[in-house]
Structure formats: C-alpha cells, structure tokens
Amino acid sequence: MTDYYGILGVDRDTSFDEIKKVYRKLAREFHPDVNPDPKASDKFKEITTAYEILSDPEKRQRYDLGGDPFSQFSGGQNFGFGDIMDAFFGGGGGNRGPRARMRAGQDALIRVELDLAEACFGAERELNLETAVACEKCSGSGCAPGTKPNVCAICKGRGETQQVTRSIIGQVMTSRPCAACQGYGSVISDACNECAGDGRVRSRKSIPIKIPAGVETGNRIQMSGAGEVGPGGGPAGDIYVEIVELPHDFLVRDGNDLHISIVIPMTSAALGTKVSVETLDGSREVAIKSGFISGETIILKDLGMNKLRGHGRGNLIVHVEVTTPNKLNKEQEELLKSLAKSRGESQDDVEIHHRGGAHSSGFFGRFRDAFNR
Ligand SMILES: [Zn+2]
Ligand SMILES: [Zn+2]
Q: Which domains, from first to last, does the chain contain?
C-alpha cells in the first residue's frame, strides 16, 4: 500500500496542524504553476492525495487500520480537498499580490424527488450531470505541455498596478488589478489547446448516490469533491443533494409517524370487523372491535417511517371514521326502528352525553385540516 506518511515526510503521530503546514510547503514547491518540471505535476498530485487522506480524520483512521481510504466515494481520487486555497493564500488573507490561477470549483445543489416509500426505505439514484473536470493534457495548469506561464511584463508579477493621482487632499495612490494579466501576475502565452488555458474541460459525469432511509424534504446529502473542478484545476466543489418528498395518495407524514384515514359503515363499527389497511409495507389486516367510536385511532406500531441515522420506526396511526347510513329504504328504516326500540332509545327524547373536546380538536383535527388542504 502507498506510504502516504512517507510522501509527506511525516510520522504516524504527526498532528493535523503540522501535516497542513508540511503540505502547504510542498504544494508551493510542486504546483505546476510554479514548477515547470513535468515530474512536479505528478509529485503535486501525489502529495495532494496523501494530504487529502491524512487531513481527513475518517480517511486517516481507515488508512491507519489498513483499509482503503477512498472506499466511501468512488470519486475520492478527485481533488476533493479543501485547504489548497489556504496553501497558497494562508487562509483568507487580503487581496494583495497576484491572484491564483487555481481557484476552488463551485458547489452545486441538485434536488432529487422521492416518493414516500423511497424516503422511508432509502433509495439509489444516478446523478447525470455536465460538469468541469481537470484537463488531463495540462494537469490543470492551462499551459501547453512543457511550458509555463511567463511573468507579466507590465506588473512584474505583482498582479496589480499602481496609479498616483492628485486630489484636493493630496496625492492618492490607488492599486488595481493589472489589466495585462487580469491580476494573475503571469501570462500564459502558450495555452493548452485542450482546455484553452482554463485548466479544465466540460464532461458528462454519472454519479451513483445512495439515499439513506428516513430522509425528508429539505435534508441535504453532501458529496465532498464531487462537483466541478475549479479554474486552473482547482479543488472540486461539493455537490449537495436536496431531498424533495412527493406527497402520497393517502398516507400523511408527521415526522416519523404516518397517518391514514379510513371510513367504515356504522354496522361494522357496531358489530366489529376486520379491514385491510394499506401501509408502506403492504396491506395489513386491522381488527375493529365491536362498539367502535367514530374518530378513534388505532396505532400500528413500527409501520411508520424509518428513523434517520437511528434504529426503529415510527408508527402508523389509523384514523377511523364511522359513517351513518342514509337513503334508507322502508325495510332498513323498520329494522333500525326496531333496533332503537329494543335498545330503549326513543327518537322523541334523545338522551345525550358529553364526551369532552378531545375528539373534535387536538391532533386529529389538525390532521384532518392537513388532509383536506
Ligand atoms: Zn500583470
Ligand atoms: Zn489543458
């Protein structure tokens, strides 16, 4: 296996800060922009790969344990490191001096639509996108092979020009980016004909993505370094995959729980029955006990959504509504009347009972509102 510690010349117990320092020093020495030796670009890639692994606690641990540090994403060989800009600028340092040809690639946001079952159980998708990849011909330098940028004759490599103007408060010195080199301090006189000096080329990429079980609308999955390569072959941006959950025909999600509303006839509620309820796991037979009251719920444990990053599932809550028979024919009306008589329920003097407000408001009321939207 490649000795990444050896490549950077550090020990196994070297701290992250120290590794970062060493990498910066080596990157300044071997970057193709500053080192014309063709071997330098290979060396640069090598140290960058080593840095990418040893600066990432997870990858470093995997590597230390003898595993494949790139196992998580197949795109791991990309220039998926975040600190290279720091290597050249010392981290967010002002805007003095020439600007680097190498800049970070932009992040991209891609929305992926999932149906409820996919959000519950996870899904696999293939992202097909057109993006920028590093130009192989020039390794991102933008220069024709064997050449390198020339120091700008106008600004002498400073990347900016100064101008002295007289004003009422005296002499004012202003500096602005050098127009001859766009502030780079160097000029590519012999551009790579593959990428026209940009250091990257357009390419179609297909990226497989695994969406974990339990996601919901708004969740984002970050794919480090899977985005476009920056100008000058700079570090690739990230891709953020944002989940958009499509509404289900009859299941309504509330966090990890699911709700479903069913309607049964009065006779079934009175006598008790079994009904078949559709769930994300197929249909389930649910017993309705005799004397069931409209508006009551039945909880089906563990048939809700999978919990993200956790174990277990939410519940499926079945809201049961009982319908009153209408459009009675003569025979049915007589049957009901004799039922009422047998139960001593007079229609002239109805005895009422208060059941409290819990059944009309509370969660089911809100649920119904959401359902009828
Ligand atoms: Zn210049
Ligand atoms: Zn090129």
A: 1-72 (1.10.287.110), 252-372 (2.60.260.20)
Q: How many Å lie between the centroid of ligand 1 and the Cα of residue 95?
A: 15
Query: How remote is the CA of residue 204 from the centroid of ligand 2, in Å?
Result: 17
Quickly tell me which residue has 């960058």 as its tokens.
Answer: 48
Assessment of whether the complete model's pTM goes beyond 0.70: no
Amino acid at 128: N
Please state the φ and ψ torsions of residue 179, each to the nearest 5 degrees. Answer: -70, -30
pLDDT (tens digit per residue) in 258-313:
999 999 999 999 999 999 999 999 999 999 999 999 999 999 999 999 998 877 99
Which two tokens mark 85? Answer: 């800009």
List the Cα angle 133/86/233 in 5-degree steps.
15
Question: How far, in whole angstroms, is CA 224 from its chain's centroid?
Answer: 10
**Which residues are near ligand 1, the ion (C-beta closer than 5 Å)?**
152, 154-155, 178, 180-181
Is 137 in contact with 197 (CB distance < 8 Å)?
no
∠ CA 259-260-262, nearest 5°, is: 150
Q: How far is the CA of 143 from the centre of ligand 2 (A)?
A: 6
Q: Is the separation of the CB atoms in 88 and 28 below 8 Å?
A: yes
